[in-house]
Amino acid sequence: MDLSFNLCPLHPSGLRLNNPVLVASGTFGYGTEFAELVDIKQIGAIVCKGTTLEPRPGNHQPRLYETAGGLLNSIGLQNIGVEAVIREKAPIWADWPVPVIVNIAGETVEEYGKLAQRLDSVRGVSALEVNISCPNVQRGGQEFGSDPRQAAEVTRVVKTSTSLPVIVKLTPNVSDIVSIARAVAQAGAEALTLVNTLRGMAIDVERYRPVLGGITGGLSGPALKPVALAMVYAVYREVKIPLIGCGGIYSVSDALEFFLAGAQAVQIGSATFINPATATKVAGDLEQWMKKRGIARLADVVGAAHHRT
Ligand SMILES: Cc1cc2nc3c(=O)[nH]c(=O)nc-3n(C[C@H](O)[C@H](O)[C@H](O)COP(=O)(O)O)c2cc1C
Asked: How many domains does one find in the chain?
C-alpha cells in the first residue's frame, strides 16, 4: 500500500513523505542518535531538535518529571546551534531516504529570519518547522505564538527568508487557537503543527520547591491528547492548509483520532521515550488498519469525524 503524499502542496517544490507518521522535535535528537535503533526510512519525516542561532546549554536540572498521564519537561532548548547543525548534521541527512525538517526557535523576529536564511539551500534540510512557543524578549517575554499579529510576523519573516517549505508549530497555551492558525496561514505558512506542550508544573512537598529547574515546564503525553485533538478539530473547520497533529500519540488508534479530526499527518513525541520504534510501529499499523478496512487512501479518513456532526 502506498501511503506517500505531499505534505506541502501549496509550496512550489512540495514536501513528499513516504508516510504520514513523523517524529516530533526534541524527542528524536538529530535522528543520528536513533539511526542504529530504528529503521528510519519507515518514518514519514524527522523533525530535529529545536535549533537556535547560538548553541544553548539549556535549563538547570532537573529537566524531566513524570506526572500522572504525562511528562513535564523544561529542557530550555538545549542545542548545538545552527552552524553545527549545518556543518555536522546536514551532510549526514543529505544521504538519508527520509526528509529532515529543522525546527527553529528565536528570541526576536530577526533571529527567526536569520535562522531561516542560514538554513536556506542547505543540502539535507527539506523544510523548516517554526517553533513559536518561545518568549519574545522584545515584548516582555510574551510567547510569539500567543498573539496572532506576532505569530503572523514571524511567519512572514521566515517565509521571505527561505525557499524551503515552512511549517509553523502552534502553542496550545492560548484561548483562541483558530485566530492564531488563521493569521499564520494568511502569512504564508504551508502547513501547521498542532501542538507544542501545555505549560505546567509540579511542586516537591518535602522541599517546598518547584520540582523542575526551569520552575514551569511543558506537559506532553497522554494528558495532552484531548487538548491537541480539540485544537486540530477546531482549526480544520476554519483553516484550509494541511495540519499535523501532535500530542499524546502512542498507538495507531491515537493517530487515527487525529486523522479523523482533520490532520493529514501526525508526530510522535514522548512515546519515543518508551519505545524508540513507536513511529515506525504506528506507520506499519496504519497500513494494516487501512488494508483491513479496504481503505485505499488516507485522504478518505482525514476529517471524517466532521461529517457526522
Ligand atoms: C523532552 C522534550 C523536548 C522537546 N523539545 C522541543 C523543541 O525543541 N522544539 C519544539 O518545537 N518542541 C519540542 N518538544 C515538544 C514536542 O515536539 C511535542 O510537541 C510535544 O511533546 C507533544 O507531543 P507528545 O505528547 O507526543 O510528546 C519537546 C518535547 C519534549 C518531551
From this structure: 1
